[in-house]
Design a protein that fits this description.
This protein is of the alpha+beta class and 123 residues long. Helices cover 41% and strands 22% of the residues. It has a single domain, classed as Alpha-Beta Plaits, CATH 3.30.70.
Amino acid sequence: MIKIALLLRKKSGTTREQFIDYYENRHVPLIMKLTGEFMVEYKRNFISWDDPLSAMSKAHYVDPDGDQSFDVITEIWCRNRETMMAMFARAQEPEIAEIIAKDEENCFDRAASRMMIVEEHPL
């Protein structure tokens, strides 16, 4: 399998609760409808910046404006690289790309989004 990791920041002025609610109840169903057939797994890991253990490292993840660099680590698994590329191709079809972009504007600071392919090594 191949794994995609995304570091995403919530839209400015959005509370953590609003962000999680929108992401889970609006964005996830939309993405699953449009590209879910290509995914094996789709996880969202919302950062608990208020937790004392997270707060210890928070200073390393704050941008010059004082905002956290990211609020969620999203993980998407695809069966293989070909499936992942097919998912990207679907997401880049003009009509679908427009739908996704408009929805992302409701909850993400899109300019702060980061995506990478990662190699997972479970214990």
